[in-house]
Amino acid sequence: MNNTDVVPPYETKEIGTPLDYTSDMYRVYFEIRDHDGMAKEIISGVLGPARAEKIETLAHGYEMELPIQCIPEIIRLLATENIAIYQVVRYAKTNNSWG
């Protein structure tokens, strides 16, 4: 999505794409099977202690805010631990910033 006409202008013309290397935050849902808490521990490690406290535990996964560029890293870390990922859903951009 191009956002050249919005006010205030964003740091990039591309929002929510692999080209988005900004500190913009998105609400994201990871649907996973986490029987031993390892997945939440991995995600918490990427987010850091303060942001990890805001992870919302849902029936089949977790929802949190993060920059879009964290998504591939979290997927890689979960897969390394043989944790199945059933879906990743990126919701709308929030007003928060990673910085």
Beta strands, count: 4
* Helix content bin: 25-40%
Which residues sit in consecutive blocks of at least 5 with pLDDT less than 50?
none
Listing every helix as H and every strand as E from the N terminus to the C terminus, the arrangement reads EHHEEHE
Rg from Cα: 14 Å
Total number of helices: 3
Q: Which structural class best describes the helix and strand composition?
A: alpha+beta
Please state the average pLDDT score.
88
N-C termini distance: 23 Å
Main β sheet profile: 4 strands, antiparallel
The 3D shape can be described as globular
Order the strands across the largest sheet as they lie in space. 2-3-1-4
Amount of beta strand = 25-35%
Task: Tell me about this structure.
This protein has 99 residues and is α+β, with helices and mostly antiparallel strands. It has a domain at 29-97. Helix content is 25%, strand content 31%. It has helices at residues 38-47, 49-52, 70-80; strands at residues 24-32, 56-58, 61-66, 85-97. The chain has a four-stranded antiparallel beta sheet, covered by helices on one side. The longest helix is centred in the C-terminal third of the chain and has 11 residues, at 70-80. The protein is globular.
Record the SSE blueprint.
Blueprint: E1 24-32, H1 38-47, H2 49-52, E2 56-58, E3 61-66, H3 70-80, E4 85-97
Antiparallel strand pairs: 1-3, 1-4, 2-3
In short:
With 99 residues, the chain is α+β, with helices and mostly antiparallel strands. It has helices at residues 38-47, 49-52, 70-80, and strands at 24-32, 56-58, 61-66, 85-97.
